[in-house]
Amino acid sequence: MTKVAVLGTGRMGGAIARRLAASGFDLTVWDRTTAKAQALNLGRVAPTPGLAIRDADIVISSLTNAAAVRDVYLGPDGAFGTSDGTLFVEMSTAGPESIEQLSQEARTRGLRLLEAPVLGSVPAVESGTLAVLVGGSPQDLDQARPVLERLGEIHYVGGFGSAARLKLVANTMLGITSAAAAELLAAGTAAGLDREQVFWALLRFAPGLKAREAGFMRDKHEPTMFAVHDLVKDLGLALDLYERANAAVPLTRETRELFDETASASSDLDISAIVTAYSGGNRRAHLRHENNDPARMS
Predict the structure, then answer these.
(1) Overall pTM > 0.70
(2) pLDDT number for residue 293
(3) 198 and 140 belong to one structural domain
(4) How many domains in the chain?
(5) Range of the domain at 253
(6) Is 244 exposed, middle or buried (CB count within 10 Å of its CB: 0-12, 13-18, 19+)?
(7) What are phi and psi for residue 2, nearest 5 degrees?
(8) Fewer CB atoms inside 10 A, N or C side of the chain?
């Protein structure tokens, strides 16, 4: 039986652990907050990353950010300190620089590593329909495939950093689409249209909005599939990437500002909470554009 360790049992890591346990893998879990790992009631709970990976064939990490990735892998009792033939699969959205640095460290230590950020949230984990973006050695992917295929469809992208960059492009699209939907729902209803009819039309062009219908249509932004603060973080990483590439991304900048404003009151809610930027008398985006309109300032 393949032995799998899961490092990080937050929203996504916990869902991944549950899916893999239900698929019959021998599981060990670790989280910085031990009670969170214990609450899963799955497999064995390890006190440190280093102990969690002991005897594991595959290690999957799903962590908050680049600092957490460095600490879990390279810190005291870290995952890279006690490995012997283990294959590491890093699934966090921490940016291309993070995985490139980690891959260099893995090479220095003679360790094997894949990057595998995913497209999709908790419901996609539960149904095994994630898109798993993989960067690294195709040979290492062959070993990880039986585990990753339980989570969803594998899409091989290329060398280290390529999957991280594609993940940021994808999350940028998610952010822009969500902000556009919130704006057009408000604009369409202001123009006298029925909100249900507007949402129906938007779904024709962005079917993925259906998963957040309760949020966009009924202001129900919990349970959280993808928190506003996490998207703000990802859009910041994306802007760093695009700036280094000298790419023009005005829509991304505007979207980051809208979600940053939304996070001030709705940080932990699902990203459908972007509708609050346009609801009722709360027209922050509209007012900002009026204040910055050169025609109005002349």
Answers:
(1) yes
(2) 52
(3) no
(4) 2
(5) 165-297
(6) exposed
(7) -65, 130
(8) C
